[in-house]
From TrEMBL:
The lineage of its organism: Bacteria, Pseudomonadati, Pseudomonadota, Betaproteobacteria, Burkholderiales. It is a multi-pass membrane protein. The keyword Transmembrane helix applies. Belongs to the ammonia transporter channel (TC 1.A.11.2) family. Residues 47-473 form the Ammonium transporter AmtB-like domain. Its main location: membrane. GO terms for molecular function: ammonium channel activity. Gene3D superfamilies: Ammonium transporter AmtB like domains. InterPro entries: Ammonium/urea_transptr (IPR029020), Ammonium_transpt (IPR001905), Ammonium_transpt_CS (IPR018047), NH4_transpt_AmtB-like_dom (IPR024041). GO terms for cellular component: plasma membrane. Residues 1-23 form the signal peptide. The gene is amt. It comes from Azohydromonas caseinilytica. This is Ammonium transporter.
């Protein structure tokens, strides 16, 4: 009996070993298949977006700082540089503490959650969606890119109340407006689960239900016409009214002290804007190339149309006009750059130069606000123009790309110019109303607690000395 049991036991043991090996091999094969199915970030896309992020930072420091700095009087040069520089640092910190989580997690149609507070759970292995199925990027790269967007948006505002606001008031306002205006608008316009989550009409409905309110409506904003420019410009205009006019405004000369620095700043903005616009595609492909060339064409066209209009009005074209026209073109093409053809970009740029020239002259006089560096006239008017014209020139019939249907995996669909312009108008109106409401409350709170404005004596002395105890230039 023992002789019979021994072979049987050996056989069972062998069978168990073989089964174990087969099970392990099967588990390994399943794991390998799952690993192969999971998309991996492309090194080229990672390098592309990393460089684009650096270009956006270049736009702020030194680009925007020098552009604004050259436009103020010499006694306030350092104060503007300081405001832009420190606002960039402040928002960069707030972005990783809670900003990214509030803007780019699913919560409700108007704001995200704090699930990623202090970037909780975001590791070097984490991935974020792009606009193509099966293509992802490192989430940390996306965090950095979007953080630079948030920082430049808040920094844009300081140009509207330059030369008379308290430095502490700028920082306090920046925290409040960033938290309650920028983050909700960014979430409403840009948040969704990504194309890989859409496989059928049912999943499309689920993604739409969980997306930002304006994204779900179909609003198109490739790189920040609503989120960045209109949002910041409205806050700046409100600030110009609530802080009040500069001492001597309309009676004393307040000419820019260094158009050389303004030209350098504008040039840095133009170069950095390629990262802003092309980088918003999140991938190094043909759409990024389209956004890049559109940024060249629209900006060049706006520069020419602005100085042409200036020459017709005043008899001479100016360096300030050329720089302002370039920024107007950059602003106007921002929401449209990845959606319109080159012909559409050319028209948008030409119109932006003329319309924004009116914005900083006729409209500014109508409003009666001392918007020191024409933030609303350029960023507000240009952003509104670009956002609305996106709904026109994104049409495939006019050379645009149309929109993508991720259920059928086909791009180029279009619901009609009228319908899309109406959606764009809703996005513009929502941004204007929400930014203005938050700005009014934020300025009022800061005024009650800190005080918005320096004294007349400090203003006449110049904010460089009175607020910072140093000067931009030694005489």
């Amino acid at each position: 009996m023992r002789k019979l049991l021994l072979p049987l036991a050996v056989g069972l043991a062998g069978l168990g070993a073989v089964s174990g090996v087969l099970a392990q091999e099967a588990a390994t094969a399943v794991a390998q298949a799952a690993s192969a199915a999971a998309p991996v970030p492309n090194k080229g896309d990672t390098a592309f977006l990393t460089i684009c992020t650096a270009l956006v930072i270049l736009m702020v420091i030194p680009g925007l700082a020098l552009f604004y700095g050259g436009l103020v009087r010499s006694k306030n040069m350092l104060s503007v540089l300081m405001q832009v520089f420190v606002v960039f640092a402040l928002i960069s910190v707030l972005w990783v503490v809670y900003g990214y989580s509030a803007a780019f997690t699913g919560g409700n149609p108007f704001i995200g959650t704090l699930d990623k507070l202090f970037l909780k759970g975001v590791t070097p292995e984490s991935v974020a969606a792009t606009f193509s199925k099966g293509v992802v990027l490192h989430e940390l790269t996306f965090v950095s890119f979007q953080g630079a967007f948030a920082a430049i948006t808040v920094a844009l505002i300081v140009g509207a109340f330059a030369e008379r606001i308290r430095f502490s008031a700028v920082l306090a306002f920046s925290v409040l407006w960033f938290t309650f205006a920028y983050l909700p608008v960014a979430h409403m316009v840009w948040y969704w689960d990504g194309p890989d989550a859409i496989t059928s009409e049912e999943t499309l409905a689920a993604v739409t239900a969980g997306a930002g309110w304006l994204w779900a409506k179909g609003a198109l904003d490739f790189a920040g016409g609503t989120v960045v420019h209109i949002n910041a410009a409205v806050a700046g205009l409100v600030g110009a009214f609530m802080v009040g006019k500069r001492v001597g405004y309309g009676r004393e000369s307040m000419a820019p002290h260094s158009l050389t620095l303004t030209m350098v700043g504008a040039s840095l903005l133009w170069v950095g804007w390629f990262g802003f616009n092309a980088g918003s595609n999140l991938e190094a492909n043909g759409v990024a190339a389209l956004a890049f060339v559109n940024t060249v064409v629209a900006t060049a066209a706006a520069t020419l149309s602005w100085i042409a209009g200036e020459a017709l009005m005043k008899g001479k074209a100016s360096m300030l006009g050329a720089a302002s026209g370039a920024v107007a073109g950059l602003v106007a093409i921002t929401p449209a750059c990845g959606f319109v053809g080159v012909g559409g970009a050319l028209v948008i740029g030409l119109l932006a130069g003329f319309v924004c020239l009116w914005g900083v002259n006729g409209l500014k006089r109508m409003l009666g606000a001392d918007d020191s560096l024409d933030v609303f006239g350029v960023h507000g008017v240009g952003g509104i123009l670009g956002a609305l014209l996106t709904g026109v020139f994104a049409s495939p019939d006019l050379g645009g790309t149309g929109i993508c249907n991720y259920v059928s995996n086909q791009c180029g669909e279009w619901g009609g110019i009228g319908a899309q312009v109406w959606v764009q108008a809703q996005a513009v109106g929502t941004t204007i109303l929400w930014s203005a409401l938050v700005a009014v409350v934020a300025y009022k709170l800061v005024d009650l607690v800190i005080g918005l404005r320096v004294s007349e004596e400090e203003e006449r002395e110049g904010l460089d000395i009175s607020s910072h105890g140093e000067t931009a230039y030694n005489r």
